[in-house]
Amino acid sequence: MFWSIDYIVAYDPMDPDGNVTIKWDFIIFDGNHYTVLVSIYNYQLYRHIEIPGWRLGWTWPKHEAIWDMRGAESTNQGDCSRFKVSTLPHCCDPSPTIIDLPLGAPYNFRTDNCCRGGVLSSLAQDPSHIQASFKMVIDSRNVTDEANPKPYNFTLGVPGYTCSNATKVAASKFKTDTERTTQALLTWEVICSYSQFRESATPGCCVSLSTFYSSTIVSCPDCSCGCQGTPTSPLCLRDDEKYSRLKEQSSDSDGSQNPLLCTQHMCPISVHWHVKVSYKDYWRVKMTITNYNMNKNYSDWNLVLQHPNLRSLLQIFSFNYHPLLQYGSLNDTGVFWGIKHYNDMLLNYGDNGNVQSEMLLHKDTEEFTFKGGWPFPRRISFNGHDCVMPPPDLYPSLPKGYSMASSPLLPDVTVFLSTIFLSVVLVLL
């Protein structure tokens, strides 16, 4: 079965004000050229720009040229034959594509906030790495004259984003030291929004469910290529041939193919939610994220989860957590991500191709129940892409005659001791 959602939604209720803002600050004019500082800010709460990174593009109105760049580079120099000089411009392409420099870029080509391969963190995960910047020297036409057209057709080069036209805004100010502030000659601003909140393609994530009180395991829905038996696509690999085929493809592949393990759902990412145990005043959940993409790692991954009991989250083990409070005191949505240098990278499929954590939640007596699918998430997304949830009528159900009074409740001292034990284990790791 294929899941196809072909409508486009630009508004994200979990991050209503999120966007990527691009600023052009004209900072130097020497009579022949302008020096422009271009800064990209990711103001999204949980969506980050992952590898291969941003690829900023636009179209010049009058075939301007970029004479020099620092902190980034154009992918194509273009036709510079109209310039009769010994040193040609860096880029003469009428529609340039600009990419970030890699981590090991030479010092004399670097600028502040550059050289991370186009990767930008999200506000919740790492606010110190939400910005990228580069400088370029361009032709000296009168940019302050509003009659002159601005660059247009801005693109971020990341699927799902659409960008506005450049508009003039208040000039940026820069703090040079504790006392002095300088100001740009002119500032343009471009806003890029994620306009494919629900994508018209097969999903990249699905959810499975299980509980301690039911023998039913609700598997991931059949939501991708529907591979059955022997795969017909070279990107679908059976478990018994995955390693040999993967080695063959990796040796001569250009990286464009990402073979998946041949499962019923054929989604790159599977999230399993297991209601593990019920204590007197608390309940425990285990989350497991598995990567079925056989030659792609997910660095700085994140998971956004919506559940009414998140407001009573007592402790999360081996993941970071940040609540997404967008509507007053309503606290039913949060973002989870890995601990740096421990599980912040979700490795490709294999023995270590998963990350997992447990969380402890307090039982709110006014609403807590194991009935009617209440203990399961309302919505899950991985790296900003919605996961496919199983149909509610397939959720694990309570046994007949089950009640909280008859359920096996563990004393709260068990919670205390297990919390200390897991904390010590994490410290040792």
How is the topology of this model organized?
Elements lengths: L19 E10 L3 E10 L12 E5 L6 E5 L1 E3 L22 E4 L30 E9 L12 E4 L5 E3 L3 E3 L3 E3 L5 E3 L2 E9 L10 E7 L2 E5 L17 E2 L4 H11 L7 E2 L7 E10 L3 E10 L6 E2 L2 E5 L6 E5 L1 E5 L9 E6 L6 E2 L7 E9 L16 E4 L2 E2 L25 H17 L1
Parallel strand pairs: 14-18, 16-17
Antiparallel strand pairs: 1-2, 1-13, 2-7, 3-6, 3-8, 4-7, 5-6, 9-13, 10-13, 11-12, 14-15, 18-19, 19-26, 20-25, 21-24, 21-27, 22-26, 23-24, 27-28
3D structure, described in words:
By secondary structure, the protein is mainly beta. 7% of the residues lie in helices and 34% in strands. It has 2 helices and 28 strands. Strands 1, 2, 4, 7, 9, 10 and 13 form a 7-stranded antiparallel beta sheet that branches.
Radius of gyration: 26 Å
The class by helix and strand makeup works out as mainly beta
**Average of pLDDT:** 84
Q: What is the count of DSSP helices, taking H or I runs of 4+ residues?
A: 2
Number of strands: 28
Shape: elongated
Uncertain regions spanning at least 5 consecutive residues: 1-9, 197-201, 228-232, 251-255, 413-429
Give a quick account of the main beta sheet: strands, pairing sense, barrel closure.
7 strands, antiparallel
Proportion in β-strands: 25-35%
How much helical structure, as a percent, in the residues?
Answer: under 10%
Name the helix and strand elements from N-terminus to C-terminus, one letter apiece: EEEEEEEEEEEEEEEEHEEEEEEEEEEEEH
Could you give the distance between the termini?
A: 42 Å
